[in-house]
Design a protein that fits this description.
By secondary structure, the protein is mainly α. The protein is 81% helix and 0% strand. It contains two helices and no strands. The relative contact order is 0.15.
Length: 69
């Protein structure tokens, strides 16, 4: 599989991860809005959200071709 063949797969993966990232954001906001939020659960969700952000950035970097100047 060439780089050109992987582009749609990578773009789909990024879109999927971005949706999951937004869902986690909503879940964190809902937990924080609760009367007594579960701080451990909020911390775990935030950590997962950061991992997703890093994974999204890594995949996006793979999608940009290296240009030798």
């Amino acid at each position: 599989m060439t780089d050109q063949d992987q582009q749609p797969d990578l773009a789909a993966k990024v879109a999927q991860l971005q949706i999951e990232h937004r869902d986690l954001d909503a879940a964190i906001a809902a937990l924080a809005a609760a009367g007594t939020p579960d701080l451990l659960q909020v911390a775990r969700l935030k950590k997962r959200k950061l991992r997703l952000k890093d994974e999204i950035k890594t995949i996006q970097d793979l999608m940009i071709p290296d240009i030798i100047a």
